[in-house]
Write a sequence for this structure.
């Protein structure tokens, strides 16, 4: 038997039909739907008089457009309100389960799916959002698609796909105290570059990856997309099984035992071939901060803003100069000297309970700096919010001067009212720092939750791993 | 979907690498529940000098004279020339809709982000990959020759330059066929309905928990 990678095993299990040129019709087990990329898809079903193939595989919730303030049950912006109401109408008409704004399970789809046990190992998972790669943490073949393919999956439960190549990213050793999955993935993206993973499914392996919790693994796979890889994968182990057990959508009883038995086979075989392998030493990873306008423009906290003059490639040099101009930064400025206007803790990358615990840990007994205009914490779902409140984390955030918000994508992409004004500089636990991402003219610096919290207190970036700040 | 067979078009260059889909169509315009109307907000933040919001009349908005889409010489362009990793970032298909709506029917770049690349084929848009050096040379020509046009021939997979030189490009067979015929992808997949049901039967016996009723509140 040829040794197979996890990627190959998942691919082969899902081929409904093989076309001559390598394209396969792949079966989709789980489809997560939200309000922005689905209206035209449901409209397409209506106009072609098609039904949803298997409505029970679809789970919907509104996240991108929703306000995060308590009064959000009545959304002020008429277009946002129309889009959110349209999702509810579509779900009712087509028999799809939706967690509405009144439902405490509502939240960011990539937080909700896993916490509900709706994301399971061995599944193919699709959503009209690029950070669908998150679910690969469960050894699920998970990727983002556009609206036409959302409609395609709704109508047929399948998608024609070309196979990707397999990349192994192996991280040996252990992450140092205070260094997190977020820092690790920023470190990896810096080496790969924003397009380095294009065409690949990346499997993350090695002792440092094994040591991550499921939430840490989700952070890693979430940002595989920022290296250009639509798919991130992590093999099943006890951590995976323990996380899923007893969750609402997870199998129970005899079905649970059968499932676990199969799930344990979802690992790459010894000797399986990868098209590309990258090795990393976790001990070398430090807390990272992006300085530029793409996620690969990042350096460790102890470093400085790079100097384009030292870049020999002319195109890269121009790109760096453009980024520095947009970000209002001077070459060789120490990262620790960069002062901030806003802090955002949230997003599908880092809005789960462990992220909130990490951030709260930095804030106990402290206040945010008076120069910080706004600091937001946006839990990833109603359940994360409830658990955080049970642990008293909301009081820690509020006492420190953070606003404690309702679940949603919030300031990650500035599509709702949470956004940066032109020129404002933000420490953000989200996943993209492109020009205008968090608001036109906004300047985004991507960091871990702990780094964002510490920056809120100091008013500037500080090294959370050093003894005193 | 409108078929794509050949195109004789004016070329408009946008000379920046890593253009993300939020630059192509900013987030505030994703609140639309239609598939059309995005053309006037294509590259909104680079094209206009003010803040764009949905529903604005775009006739009176101040334009950025330095942005190619606003320059008379590129009016009516149907081929966009770009640099590497075009269409990175968010999966929003609206980026392709905005390009199509403005009038772009084909793209030429050294590389594209995967999701954006796939979205093009869903909308009768042909994304052509050419080597970076070739793209570089095209940028020079397009920028120095007003009215520079290219002729794209999909069946033969060629791009014909004004000087008569022919550039060849690769394209995946299935995607090429669907573009040439303007096929409804969903109708094609539904032809395999029997196959899909047989697969579900087999899979149900292997992983029965995926077909059991979910617990719902």
């Amino acid at each position: 038997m040829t040794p197979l990678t996890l990627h190959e095993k998942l691919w082969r299990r899902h081929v409904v039909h093989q076309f001559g040129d390598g394209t396969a019709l792949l079966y989709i087990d789980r489809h997560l739907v939200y309000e922005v990329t689905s209206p035209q898809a449901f409209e397409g079903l209506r106009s072609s008089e098609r039904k949803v193939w298997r409505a029970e595989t679809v789970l919907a919730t509104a996240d991108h457009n929703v306000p995060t303030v308590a009064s959000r049950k009545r959304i002020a912006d008429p277009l946002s309100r129309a889009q959110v109401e349209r999702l509810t109408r579509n779900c009712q008409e087509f028999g799809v389960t939706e967690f509405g704004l009144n439902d405490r399970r509502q939240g960011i789809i990539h937080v909700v799916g896993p916490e509900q046990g709706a994301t399971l190992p061995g599944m193919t998972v699709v959503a009209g959002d690029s950070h669908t790669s998150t679910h690969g943490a469960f050894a699920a073949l998970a990727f983002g698609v556009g609206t036409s393919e959302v409609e395609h999956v709704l109508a047929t439960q399948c998608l024609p796909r070309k196979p990707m190549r397999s990349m192994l990213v192996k991280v040996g050793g252990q992450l140092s105290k205070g260094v997190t999955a977020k820092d690790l993935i920023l470190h990896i993206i810096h080496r790969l570059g924003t397009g380095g993973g294009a065409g690949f499914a990346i499997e993350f392996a090695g002792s440092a990856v094994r040591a991550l919790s499921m939430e840490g693994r989700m952070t890693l796979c979430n940002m595989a997309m920022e290296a250009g890889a639509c798919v991130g994968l992590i093999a099943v182990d006890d951590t995976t099984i323990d996380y899923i057990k007893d969750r609402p959508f997870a199998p129970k009883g005899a079905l649970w035992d059968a499932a676990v038995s199969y799930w344990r086979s979802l690992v790459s075989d010894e000797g399986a071939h990868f098209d590309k392998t990258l090795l990393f030493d976790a001990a070398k990873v430090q807390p990272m901060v992006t300085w530029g306008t793409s996620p690969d423009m990042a350096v460790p906290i102890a470093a400085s803003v790079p100097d384009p003059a030292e870049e020999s490639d002319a195109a890269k040099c121009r790109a760096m100069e453009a980024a520095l101009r947009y970000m209002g930064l001077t070459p060789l400025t120490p990262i620790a000297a960069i002062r901030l206007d806003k802090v955002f803790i949230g997003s599908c990358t880092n809005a789960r309970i462990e992220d909130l615990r990490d951030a709260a840990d930095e804030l106990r007994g402290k206040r945010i700096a008076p120069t910080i205009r706004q600091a937001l914490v946006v839990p990833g779902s109603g359940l994360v919010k409830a658990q955080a409140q049970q642990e008293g984390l909301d009081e820690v955030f509020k006492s420190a001067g953070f606003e404690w918000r309702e679940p949603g994508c919030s300031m990650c992409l500035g599509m709702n009212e949470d956004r940066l004004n032109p020129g404002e500089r933000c420490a953000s636990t989200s996943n993209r720092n492109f020009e205008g991402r968090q608001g036109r003219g906004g300047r985004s610096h991507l960091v871990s939750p702990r780094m964002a919290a510490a920056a809120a207190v100091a008013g500037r970036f500080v090294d959370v791993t050093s003894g005193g700040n | 979907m409108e078929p794509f067979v050949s195109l004789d078009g004016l070329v408009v260059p946008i000379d920046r690498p890593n253009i993300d889909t939020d630059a192509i169509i900013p987030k505030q315009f994703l609140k639309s529940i239609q598939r059309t109307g995005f053309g006037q907000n294509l590259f909104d933040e680079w094209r206009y000098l003010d803040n764009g919001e949905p529903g604005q009349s775009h006739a009176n908005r101040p334009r950025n004279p330095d942005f190619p889409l606003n320059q008379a010489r590129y009016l009516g362009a149907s081929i966009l020339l770009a640099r590497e990793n075009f269409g990175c970032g968010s999966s929003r298909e609206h980026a392709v809709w905005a390009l199509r709506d403005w009038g772009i029917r084909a793209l030429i770049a050294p590389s594209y982000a995967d999701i954006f690349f796939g979205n093009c084929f869903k909308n009768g848009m042909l994304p052509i990959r050419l080597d970076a050096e070739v793209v570089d040379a095209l940028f020079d020509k397009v920028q120095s020759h007003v009215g520079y046009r290219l002729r794209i021939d999909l069946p033969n997979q060629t791009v014909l330059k004004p000087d008569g030189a022919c550039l060849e490009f690769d394209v995946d067979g299935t995607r090429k066929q669907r573009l040439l015929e303007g096929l409804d992808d969903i109708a094609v997949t539904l032809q395999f309905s029997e196959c899909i049901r047989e697969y579900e039967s087999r899979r149900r016996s292997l992983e029965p928990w995926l077909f059991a009723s979910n617990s719902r509140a």
Summary: The longest strand of chain B covers residues 6-13. Strands of chain B lie at 6-13, 79-81, 106-109, 126-129, 149-153, 158-160, 166-168.
